[in-house]
Amino acid sequence: MDIAVLVKASLDVNLVRGDAEGRLLKEAIPLAISEYDRNAVYEAVRLRDALGGKVYILSVLTWGPTQRRMRDFENVVREALALGGDEAHVVVDEAAVEAGPKATAYILSKLVDKLGGVGLVLCGEASMDMMASQVSNYLASYLGYNSVTFVRELSIEGGKVRCKRDLENYIEMVETELPAVISVTGEINKPRLPTLLQIRRAFAKPLKTYSLSDIGVSELPKQTPTKYELVKVSRKNIIIEGASMEEIASKLVDKLIEEGVLRR
Question: Is 176 a member of any domain?
Fold first, then answer.
């Protein structure tokens, strides 16, 4: 059984940059693989080793401009290949830049159709930049596959997949038939960092790039434009002065009590 894994080149939330007006400088933020996508790749490799088949890495470049982003994007995809993926199929097109979850899922559905024979699609529960948790359900709808989300444990037997999934207040056991799209949580496994040899081998693995027209996409689903802003934090800049350290300390305690930080 062939398995596809969705991997997103996300804005690196550890290196967020903005200007003085609080605008997010998206083009200045490097791209990195989403953490949960590593879990998805690692789980796909485990299943492939047990059941046979191939692991396809699928991705759409959604942060532009595409030419400037290609190096970061390829590094993300190659990292997924180093984790054990067999080959990668990616979509790079200016029309796909800043595609929302619905449009991204539509593009990925056409990519899955083009590959053919994919019985299982795995992805992380959310991307680390947008955290929408919507792509997997949209994708399942477009493909006509069953869908299970927030899975922390899974097994496949007899054409069925059995999942343990996290809900807000309890854990649920779910069984569904293949083909299916499954999103996984960080609890499903602990991915190991790829070795130097695995990284070197990743550069020899196939990586095929498509435009939207290559996969038969002429128009994307409509989406509401997204506005990005940084959270603004303003300081009160209170200066405490006194004739002695004891007086300053007393005034500081009074101010902390006034602010609700301390209680008498």
Answer: yes
